[in-house]
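Dear colleague,

Thank you for sharing your sequence with our group. We've completed the structure prediction you requested, and as agreed, I am returning the results in plain text so they can be pasted directly into your records. Please verify that the sequence below matches your submission; if there's any discrepancy, let me know and we will rerun it promptly.
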Amino acid sequence: MTTQTITNEIKIGDFIKGSYKYGCICGIVLKVNKSVVVIQEYNGFYNTYTKTENIVNVTKNRISEIGLEPNGILKNN
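Please find the predicted structure tokens below.
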């Protein structure tokens, strides 16, 4: 799947994973703009993701994956 295809498929409520200058980032999409996606950040540890209070902008070309793996777990506390 090409990057162009990935960025066209992003919708509000999707779980995304991506990279930035200092590491990896993941979270739930809150808003989709032309070149940036606003997410509720989650901290990942193996297949468990814990919600944080951070709202983060992610450039679309930095997104590498859409969707949670089949055995992934989201924690909201």
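Summary note from our side: The chain has a mean pLDDT of 88.

Kind regards,
the structure core
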